[in-house]
């Protein structure tokens, strides 16, 4: 497997896979990144580089992960990673380029889109639909029947109550309790939505 990203999320992914997966190379656009956990960083991906195995984009920022995935989708197959301690229902669906980390739970009839992060100890209950480029942060809890739109961030220890619809490119603050729908591009802090929307990602 190749890894794109040599910062914090990159370290997490290396630590997650190195005991069972050969790491063929690590890329990062930042020329100051020379090494990560003992592995050399090869720099940016050359335009004509031929991938000999799958790639995982180890970047936590949803918009950046989206941009890179769209740039590379015609050149490489994206890897999925599910930690052995995670519980992933045989009746749940997983897109491409996703990671389900230690202790996370994804229940029956739930769907994860492409490039989704389900972080440590997060719980996604039955019949949830998680859009592309979403990040479910550590210990977040999604009850049944929830939709989370493309690019949204669900903060650590947040609780989303059953049936709530969260729009695209929303941010739910850490520890929040979401009890009603959130429109596209809005931020929810505590127990209420903020009055002004945050900027949305548009185009490629």
TrEMBL record:
<dbReference type="Pfam" id="PF00132">
    <property type="entry name" value="Hexapep"/>
</dbReference>
<protein>
    <submittedName>
        <fullName>2,3,4,5-tetrahydropyridine-2,6-dicarboxylate N-acetyltransferase</fullName>
        <ecNumber>2.3.1.89</ecNumber>
    </submittedName>
</protein>
<keyword id="KW-0012">Acyltransferase</keyword>
<feature type="binding site">
    <location>
        <begin position="7"/>
        <end position="9"/>
    </location>
    <ligand>
        <name>substrate</name>
    </ligand>
</feature>
<feature type="binding site">
    <location>
        <position position="135"/>
    </location>
    <ligand>
        <name>acetyl-CoA</name>
    </ligand>
</feature>
<feature type="binding site">
    <location>
        <position position="60"/>
    </location>
    <ligand>
        <name>substrate</name>
    </ligand>
</feature>
<feature type="domain" description="PglD N-terminal">
    <location>
        <begin position="2"/>
        <end position="69"/>
    </location>
</feature>
<dbReference type="Pfam" id="PF17836">
    <property type="entry name" value="PglD_N"/>
</dbReference>
<dbReference type="InterPro" id="IPR001451">
    <property type="entry name" value="Hexapep"/>
</dbReference>
<dbReference type="InterPro" id="IPR041561">
    <property type="entry name" value="PglD_N"/>
</dbReference>
<comment type="similarity">
    <text>Belongs to the transferase hexapeptide repeat family.</text>
</comment>
<dbReference type="InterPro" id="IPR050179">
    <property type="entry name" value="Trans_hexapeptide_repeat"/>
</dbReference>
<keyword id="KW-0808">Transferase</keyword>
<dbReference type="GO" id="GO:0047200">
    <property type="term" value="F:tetrahydrodipicolinate N-acetyltransferase activity"/>
</dbReference>
<dbReference type="InterPro" id="IPR011004">
    <property type="entry name" value="Trimer_LpxA-like_sf"/>
</dbReference>
<feature type="active site" description="Proton acceptor">
    <location>
        <position position="126"/>
    </location>
</feature>
<dbReference type="InterPro" id="IPR020019">
    <property type="entry name" value="AcTrfase_PglD-like"/>
</dbReference>
<feature type="site" description="Increases basicity of active site His">
    <location>
        <position position="127"/>
    </location>
</feature>
């Amino acid at each position: 497997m190749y890894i794109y990203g040599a910062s914090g999320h990159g370290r997490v992914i290396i630590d997650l896979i190195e005991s069972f997966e050969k790491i063929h190379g690590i890329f990062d656009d930042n020329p100051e990144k020379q090494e990560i956990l003992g592995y050399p960083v090869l720099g940016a991906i050359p335009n004509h580089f031929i991938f000999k195995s799958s790639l995982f984009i180890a970047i936590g920022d949803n918009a950046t992960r989206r941009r890179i995935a769209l740039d590379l989708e015609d050149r490489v197959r994206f890897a999925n990673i599910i930690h052995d301690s995670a519980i992933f229902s045989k009746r749940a669906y997983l897109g491409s380029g996703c990671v389900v980390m230690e202790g996370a739970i994804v229940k029956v009839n739930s769907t994860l889109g492409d490039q989704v992060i389900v972080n440590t100890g997060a719980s996604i209950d039955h019949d949830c639909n998680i859009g592309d480029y979403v990040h479910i942060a550590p210990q977040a809890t999604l009850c049944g029947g929830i939709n989370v739109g493309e690019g949204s961030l669900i903060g650590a220890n947040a609780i989303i109550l059953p049936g709530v619809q969260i729009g695209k490119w929303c941010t739910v603050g850490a520890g929040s309790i979401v009890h009603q729908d959130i429109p596209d591009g809005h931020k929810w802090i505590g127990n209420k939505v903020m009055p002004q929307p945050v900027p949305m990602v548009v185009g490629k």
